[in-house]
Amino acid sequence: MTESTKTDEKTSAPPATVKTPAATRWRWGALAVLLVLAVYAPFQLAPFYVFQLTMVLVYAVALLGLNLLVGHAGQISLGHGAFFAIGAYTAAILMERAALPYPLTLPVAAAVAFLIGLGLGVPAMRLRGLYLALVTLAIAIFLVPLLKRFEELTGGSMGLTLAKPQPPAWTGLAEDQWLYFIALIVAVGTFLLVASLLRSRVGRALHAVRDNEIAAEVMGVRLSFYKTLAFAWSAMLAGVAGSVYTWVIGFVSPDSFTVNLSINLLAGIVVGGLGSLSGPVLGGLFVMFVPSISQDINDAAPGVIFGLLIIAVMYVAPTGLAGLAGRLIKKIPRKKE
Amino acid sequence: MSDLVVDGLVAGYGDVRVLHGVSFGVKQGEVCAILGPNGAGKTTLLRALSGMVRTRGTATLGGTELAGRSPDTVARLGVAHVPEGRGTFMPLTVEDNLRLGAFVRRGRAEIEADLDRIFTYFPVLKTRLKQEAGSLSGGEQQMLALGRALMLRPRLLLLDEPSLGLAPLVTRELFRIVQAINAEEQTTVVVVEQNAHLALGIAQQAHVLETGRIVLSGTAEEIRADEQVAQSYLGYRV
Amino acid sequence: MAGFLQQIVTGLGAGAIYASLALALVLIYQFTGIVNFAQGELAMFSTYIAWTLVAAGVSFWLALVITLVVSFAGGMLIERIVIRPVEGAPELTIVIVTVGLFIFVNAAAGWIWTFLIKDFPNPFPGGALELGAVTVNFSTLGVLGVVGLVMGLLYLLFQHTKIGLGMRAVATNPASARLVGIRVGWTLALGWGLAATVGAVSGVLVAPLLFLEPNMMAGVLIYAFAAATLGGFDSPVGAVIGGLIVGVAETLAGAYVGFIGSDLKIGVPLLIILAVLLLRPQGLFGRAAVERA
Fold first, then answer.
1. Where is the ABC transporter domain (chain B) (predicted)?
2. Fewest CB atoms within 10 A around its CB: which of A74, A253, B60, B98?
3. Do chains B and A touch (3 or more CB pairs under 8 A)?
4. Is the dihedral of CA A169, A172, A177, A183 positive or negative?
């Protein structure tokens, strides 16, 4: 029974997660190069570009959470911007109203997003994926007026403006560089966390849920338990990303977290690559740079590009850019045979 | 001269091949029984004829190619298929189900006349006309499925296990009606059946299918008389 | 008491609009099992077409007819071009494709017509009907009348025409529908065309009340989801009754629940969706229970 389970998983997992020795070597090599570049970059780039890269990392953390849910557990959320907002506001309110030192706001933001995710996940996860999409979309739309309502706490439509974290003198870093490294550390930390989570029993259970719910249930995977947990974790990661967002931007307002954010996040992870670890990074680059570059053409250009790309990706490469790259890498050794 | 000519028909699902080159012919107005054990490919053969599975090889009806066409096109060529599970439109009324049988036909008056004709075969359907098809008994649903097929005025009628799940008495009645239909309408019939005894009772020709190949063909009498066949393929003693 | 009745009338007017978009959602769900997240955006796009025609000097009612025809053709084309390639794919894939369509149509409208709000003409006269202490705007009556008319036409189509019979057959048993000779692919496209047409009606009805802009339908979509969930995703009648209930519930909650007020009314459909999913997942008039995971 356990034997057959394992083979099932291997055949049905997206190509990018199939570990041939060559692909593994490639991956570690690429990862090392990437990390060196990531550390080197802020010393070479102008502050504005450093800021942009910081935002890529922030989005990547949120997408990591969304990927856990959509890519690994096969559930859809159209409202992840809401959890991002919850994290951002938790951090902002704690810094502004409770004068909490900023590093402490991250675990609180994570916990709040996790608990809200758990609370919403319990009813939503008892039902089919479709309804989860519906409920999460409604939540994302509902959150904006809700934030505006609790003005004493959230600052209403005006939002909250905060002092950005300043680099300690011993680092010798500029503010943008310091924020970048904070985001990098959070990103690397959460990536390692998720990677080890996916390698554990839990990861296998999630894949079983995604690939065949009925079979997973027959095998004794407690479906609703793992689905709810995946939802809560992904909410937590979005919350973590949100708190870093608050530090980086130094400002939160309801209109930063409209349903468009949620939809952009989904677009990012679909285009970046569902079910792969590099998907969130590629997706983060997308969410950051496609709008900033294409907006020069027309305000609507990012939406047109995202919309078309999402549809195209679902047709030709359901595992996104990361999956496409994985497939290409796999093909290289094959040709030599 | 055969009306339905099947030649080298190959069919399957995905990579799994179920039929490995089946050839036979059925004369106009005859009943042909396809017998054989479970998993022999009987249902697949019917599905191949009506375009529900991908095929290679040919199957012509009166010279027109059926193989490789879509089910809706095959239906428009005059082939009525009563599929496994009867294909009833459960939430629709009995009348809707019957009218759907004539979906591709034109001519209101003729269709109304055919409805009445079908009530002569299946009087019970007339009393259930406005009832949901899903509320009928198994036997009534099988009658409805036959009635729906007849509404096409088919040139070829494909019946998949009409006896499945029915009481013996109901089954016998059903086969009697099929025989009557065949006699009165001169409809060519291919019937797939586990209950070989019943099928051979109304058929002129029969073929025994095993693992996707025809292993024995003959008149119904010949097949029935072949004691060895009876034991090994049909599962009963003569 | 009169105030209460007044609120109900207002709620019915809003509910009729939700009902029409919910009807469009249910039409597609019945045929294909797909919940079309882009339904609201398609309606918005149709409304822009009507606006463009009116702005070009075409009379409102002629513009409406042209818009409905174009929407019908557009809906069919979208089914053939966008949805057909993922037919039979996992639900997640199809949902994502309709979300992609949502983003694309929204942005395309913004590109063509900009994101600035536009005034949309109200086709109904401005006055009101006085019924005792209750005032019923002609525009509310008009909306109710149009939605009633659409319902009636759909009923006639489905129950009394051959095409409608074929469509019901495809909705209940596509494999068997093929066997009786129905061209299932075209029928599905027809379903999308019809849904786009019904959606266009809801867009044209809502635009005079909300102002026309590309994000106009996002909120309405949530109400329509709530209506369809409440009525049952496989029941057109349920969608309409669900829409009216949602409209009334929203108006009453906004008027009488101090905390909700006018700004948090969008929370009402969310609560309705959650409550229905937990208490009666198949909805009030739905046949099959939604598969539980």
1. 4-236
2. B60
3. no
4. negative
Partner chains of B (3+ C-beta pairs under 8 Å): C
Residue A28 neighbours by CB under 8 Å, 6+ apart: none
B170 assigned to some structural domain: yes
CATH of the domain at C73: 1.10.3470
User: Number of residue pairs across A and C with CB atoms under 8 Å?
Assistant: 156
Q: What is the pTM of this model?
A: 0.86
Restricting to C residues 159-198, those with a Cβ less than 8 Å away from any Cβ of B are 162, 165-166, 168-169, 172-173, 175-184
Question: Pairing between strand B31-35 and B205-210?
Answer: parallel
For residue C249, what are the CA distances in angstroms to A169, B133, C260, C270?
58, 37, 12, 12
**Does the residue C268 lie in any domain?**
yes
Rounded CA separation A37/A55 (Å): 16
pLDDT, greater one: C195 or A20: C195
Put residue A74 in one of left, alpha, beta given phi > 0 → left and psi -120 to 50 → alpha: left
Residues of C in contact with B50 (CB under 8 A): 179
**Dihedral through CA C27, CA C31, CA C32, CA C34, nearest 10?**
20
Residues 119-138 of A with CB under 8 A from C: 123-131, 133-135, 137-138
Predicted confidence band of residue A7 (pLDDT cuts 50, 70, 90): very low
Count structural domains, chain B.
Answer: 1
Q: Which domain holds residue B160?
A: 2-87+154-234
Q: How far is C180 from chain B (nearest CA, A)?
A: 6
In a domain, residue B43? The reply is yes
Residue span of the structural domain in which C9 resides: 2-279
Residue of C nearest to B105 (CA): C181
User: With contacts defined as CB-CB under 8 Å, which chain A residues touch C36?
Assistant: none
Residue of A255, A310, A315, A316 best to disrupt the C interface, most CBs of C under 10 A: A310
Helix (H, G, I), strand (E, B) or coil at B208: strand
User: Across the interface, which of B72, B88, B92 has its CB nearest the CB of C182?
Assistant: B72
| Residue-level pLDDT at A326 | 58
For residue range A85-130, list pLDDT tens digits in order: 999 999 999 998 888 888 889 999 999 999 999 888 777 666 666 7
Within an 8 Å CB–CB cutoff, is residue C88 touching chain B?
no
In a domain, C286, yes or no: no
What is the rounded distance in angstroms from the CA atom of residue C188 to the CA atom of residue C191?
A: 5
Asked if B91 and C178 come within 8 Å (Cβ–Cβ), the reply is: no
* Domain-embedded: residue B121: no
Q: Does A224 touch chain C (CB under 8 A)?
A: yes
Number of domains in chain C: 1
CATH number at residue B42: 3.40.50.300
Tens of pLDDT, residue by residue, chain B (238 residues): 688 999 999 998 888 899 999 999 999 999 999 998 888 899 999 999 999 998 999 999 999 999 989 999 999 999 999 998 899 999 999 999 999 999 999 989 999 999 999 999 999 999 999 999 999 998 899 999 999 999 999 999 999 999 888 888 889 989 999 999 999 889 999 999 888 888 999 999 999 998 999 988 999 888 888 766 666 665 554 4
Residue B182 lies in a domain: yes
Least confident of A113-127, A251-265, A296-310, B88-102: A113-127
Residue C173 lies in a domain: yes
Q: What percent of chain C has pLDDT over 90?
A: 64
- Please list, in sequence order, all residues whose beta carbon lies within 8 angstroms of the beta carbon of residue B76, skipping any fewer than 6 positions away: B104, C181
Examine residue C251 and state whether it is found in any structural domain, yes or no. yes
